[in-house]
Design a protein that fits this description.
By secondary structure, the chain is of the alpha+beta class. The chain has helices at 35-43, 74-93, 113-155, 187-204; strands at residues 4-7, 14-17, 23-25, 32-34, 167-170, 176-180, 219-224, 227-233, 242-246. The longest helix is centred in the middle third of the chain and has 43 residues, at 113-155.
């Protein structure tokens, strides 16, 4: 389902939220809120006053829109492997203890040992193929994200080290970006930020500007203290590959 624009009830930042999710998380102030309230504020702020209250660091479950959530978590995989290794070590340490059988009857599946070994082998092979495919893809995506972030920050004249938190790149194909800047930002400035991001992303992905659509599925939010802009690609119109929408 397409994302929908909402506003953080705490700081007023413009966010792209998933209508199918009940809760949302602000990337800028760490507030957690009901998405319904954020959508209502985006449609009509009225006399609502954003409190700008300091929020504790959010450590709960991932509340990013589902299309931004990674399908494969390398850290969780590593934690699972380490937990399994600890279990195996504990089993080895307890191997000298007398074996106690439960009174509960164990069903006899009447499965030959060769068949059991074959089924187990197939399961291990499938798991190995899955890991062999997904781990390199995940690592490659993260490498591209790191290189793209560094090159893009340099392109817009920001320090890749000191100003790294002013850029957020998301999506499995690193196609969604949020840029935080100071001062007033014009529509032309926002378009320039977007253009440079698309160009730098194309370099990192080795895309051909003459044959590939550099703007396809790419989106960006440029946010400042004096307003914001949202840029959305429009690949169906070659003459105008994207539109810039004011978030004021």
């Amino acid at each position: 389902m397409a994302l929908k624009e909402g506003r953080c009830p705490n700081c007023g930042s413009i966010l792209m939220l998933d209508p199918e999710q009940e809760k949302g998380h602000c990337l800028y102030c760490d507030a957690v809120f009901d998405n319904a309230k954020a959508f209502a504020l985006a449609e009509n702020v009225g006399d609502y006053v954003f409190p700008h209250e300091e929020q504790p660091p959010y450590e709960g479950p991932n509340l990013d829109p589902k299309q931004y959530q990674p399908r494969f978590d390398v850290d969780k995989l590593q934690q699972s492997i380490e937990a399994n290794q600890r279990k195996q070590a504990a089993k080895r340490q307890n191997s000298d203890l007398p074996l106690e059988l439960s009174d509960q009857a164990i069903p006899d599946l009447n499965m030959p040992r060769k068949q059991v070994a074959w089924v187990a082998g197939v399961a291990v092979l499938i798991a190995a193929i899955f890991l062999a495919v997904m781990i390199p893809i995940s690592l490659q995506r993260d490498r591209v994200k790191a290189d793209l972030s560094k090159a893009y920050l340099q392109e817009i004249q920001l320090d890749p080290v000191a100003d790294a938190e002013k850029l957020l790149i998301r999506g499995n194909d690193n196609s969604q970006a949020v840029v935080l800047v100071k001062g007033s930002i014009s529509e032309e400035d926002a378009a320039d930020y977007f253009e440079k991001f698309c160009q730098e992303r194309a370099k990192q992905l080795h895309m051909n500007p003459e044959t590939d659509n550099l703007y396809r599925n790419v989106g960006m939010e440029v946010i400042s203290t004096e307003g914001s802009w949202r840029i959305i690609a429009t690949p169906q119109d070659p003459g105008r590959p994207y539109v810039v929408i004011s978030g004021k």
